[in-house]
Amino acid sequence: MPLTFTAGPVRVRVPATSANLGPGFDALGLALGLHDDVTAEVTSGGVRVAVHGEGAGELPEDDRHLVARAMRRTFDVLGGQPAGLALECVNRIPQARGLGSSSAAIVAGVLLARALVTDGVERLDDAGALRLAAEIEGHPDNVAPCLLGGFTIAWTEPSGAGAVSLPVAEGVRPTVFVPAERGLTETARAALPATVPHADAALNAGRAALLVHALTAAPALLLPATVDRLHQDYRAPGMPQTAALVAALRAAGVAAVVSGAGPTVLALTEPPADFAPGTEWQVWRLAIEASGATVARGRLGHAERGPVAAGRKS
Ligand SMILES: Nc1ncnc2c1ncn2[C@@H]1O[C@H](COP(=O)(O)OP(=O)(O)OP(=O)(O)O)[C@@H](O)[C@H]1O
Ligand SMILES: N[C@@H](CCO)C(=O)O
């Protein structure tokens, strides 16, 4: 069946995410109350992208833009390309900081393309959208919470990625410490060794299992549950200030980890009121985004464009 495209714009709201959460490398993730909004419309030719907020003036404004590339890939899977596309991005998620900005852009692209095709959901169901987004990103741990919301466990089979979302216990209180400098996931992955000691793998398996219990039912166990030996120490020389802040928070009893591939730090429990991280960090208390990405028809309203709509608490 040839594709037909819906008339008028569609929009998607995608959350920031924090992957790994300490021991859950490439598997565990959490959706956070800080969002990008992207609107897309089919046009008669070309690709135009308007970027507001994070990445404005830096990101490409044509078919090299990550959302546009994810859309083109998704249209191929759906069975055909529209003549042209116009995109408008209202970005609030800091980019290349370990808060899942690339996954948010990819998930936005997959969901927008699907929403622009009249019978898109019949051609690509939610499980297929997760598999496609994870394939484009290369690993599923940010894509899963971005799509599903909450705390997610993701895995990869030969047939592609799968994920489940679990409700988070009261008492889990995310705070992110965002530095000015950036760090690309690609660079942080290159710092990892090809093999790790068996004892370290065993430790991580136990702590990752404990973390599932701690996040869903027993926040008092978050400090021991967030110990990691698979990635954070190997990456520390490339982000010494991040490693120092994680160590200082943990010494103060706070369940702190490197967020994703860094350099942002995520605390899952509240730092003491007198904890002073230093002026180089932007400190935001964020809600947990329970619902994941949402799609709607029409353009973004004026009131939904501001930073307040992002859900940032402080
Ligand atoms: N909203 C966006 N629109 C277009 N491109 C983006 C967007 N967000 C990120 N990117 C692209 O992805 C790159 C960052 O991806 P990267 O995976 O390194 O970091 P991250 O996703 O922010 O962090 P992490 O994967 O550790 O959580 C940016 O440099 C940019 O090229
Ligand atoms: N699991 C990934 C998350 C960042 O994309 C990593 O740490 O490399």
UniProtKB/TrEMBL annotation:
<comment type="similarity">
    <text>Belongs to the GHMP kinase family. Homoserine kinase subfamily.</text>
</comment>
<dbReference type="InterPro" id="IPR014721">
    <property type="entry name" value="Ribsml_uS5_D2-typ_fold_subgr"/>
</dbReference>
<keyword id="KW-0808">Transferase</keyword>
<dbReference type="GO" id="GO:0005524">
    <property type="term" value="F:ATP binding"/>
</dbReference>
<feature type="domain" description="GHMP kinase C-terminal">
    <location>
        <begin position="222"/>
        <end position="273"/>
    </location>
</feature>
<dbReference type="InterPro" id="IPR020568">
    <property type="entry name" value="Ribosomal_Su5_D2-typ_SF"/>
</dbReference>
<feature type="domain" description="GHMP kinase N-terminal">
    <location>
        <begin position="66"/>
        <end position="150"/>
    </location>
</feature>
<dbReference type="InterPro" id="IPR013750">
    <property type="entry name" value="GHMP_kinase_C_dom"/>
</dbReference>
<keyword id="KW-0028">Amino-acid biosynthesis</keyword>
<feature type="binding site">
    <location>
        <begin position="94"/>
        <end position="104"/>
    </location>
    <ligand>
        <name>ATP</name>
    </ligand>
</feature>
<dbReference type="InterPro" id="IPR006203">
    <property type="entry name" value="GHMP_knse_ATP-bd_CS"/>
</dbReference>
<keyword id="KW-0067">ATP-binding</keyword>
<keyword id="KW-0963">Cytoplasm</keyword>
<protein>
    <recommendedName>
        <fullName>Homoserine kinase</fullName>
        <ecNumber>2.7.1.39</ecNumber>
    </recommendedName>
</protein>
<dbReference type="GO" id="GO:0005737">
    <property type="term" value="C:cytoplasm"/>
</dbReference>
<dbReference type="InterPro" id="IPR000870">
    <property type="entry name" value="Homoserine_kinase"/>
</dbReference>
<dbReference type="Pfam" id="PF00288">
    <property type="entry name" value="GHMP_kinases_N"/>
</dbReference>
<dbReference type="InterPro" id="IPR006204">
    <property type="entry name" value="GHMP_kinase_N_dom"/>
</dbReference>
<dbReference type="GO" id="GO:0009088">
    <property type="term" value="P:threonine biosynthetic process"/>
</dbReference>
<dbReference type="Pfam" id="PF08544">
    <property type="entry name" value="GHMP_kinases_C"/>
</dbReference>
<dbReference type="InterPro" id="IPR036554">
    <property type="entry name" value="GHMP_kinase_C_sf"/>
</dbReference>
<dbReference type="GO" id="GO:0004413">
    <property type="term" value="F:homoserine kinase activity"/>
</dbReference>
<keyword id="KW-0547">Nucleotide-binding</keyword>
<comment type="pathway">
    <text>Amino-acid biosynthesis; L-threonine biosynthesis; L-threonine from L-aspartate: step 4/5.</text>
</comment>
<keyword id="KW-0791">Threonine biosynthesis</keyword>
<comment type="function">
    <text>Catalyzes the ATP-dependent phosphorylation of L-homoserine to L-homoserine phosphate.</text>
</comment>
<keyword id="KW-0418">Kinase</keyword>
